[in-house]
């Protein structure tokens, strides 16, 4: 692995079930994550994914790409465009730093309306 290497992309279909299940699993009962009519009343065209689900998907992406010896040490993300049902989020990553067994990956998750998530993940990988 070298600085500048890219990780294989991961396409994640953004389904209504994924959004609702992620919200429930993370105990986020805000109506905008499970009730389309209440989400519309609050100005959103539909329900949308919460940050905790996104954080988990980013972690999954990096550990899947770096292998079973990978241990996440830090995940720092920022949300942008919402993930709505019916879209697809494509996660991509670039190695931006290496220090011994520690790797830092810049991650971007894009959907049909823009960047849903950007950030960096620091992980230790087995030698």
Keywords:
single chain; 127 residues; alpha+beta; 5-stranded antiparallel β-sheet; 5 strands; 41% strand
Quick rundown:
With 127 residues, this protein is of the alpha+beta class. It has three helices and five strands, in the order E-H-H-H-E-E-E-E.
Structure, described:
This protein is an alpha+beta fold and 127 residues long. Helix content is 25%, strand content 41%. It is built from three helices and five strands; from the N terminus they run βαααββββ.
Question: What secondary-structure arrangement, pairings included, does this model have?
Answer:
Blueprint: E1 6-14, H1 16-25, H2 36-41, H3 51-66, E2 71-79, E3 87-99, E4 102-111, E5 114-124
Antiparallel strand pairs: 1-3, 2-5, 3-4, 4-5
Number of strands: 5
Write the H/E string, N to C. EHHHEEEE
**Order of the strands making up the biggest sheet:** 1-3-4-5-2
The helix fraction, in percent, is 25-40%
Strand content: 35-45%
Number of separate helices: 3
Radius of gyration: 16 Å
Low-confidence stretches: none
Structural class of the helices, strands and pairings?
A: alpha+beta
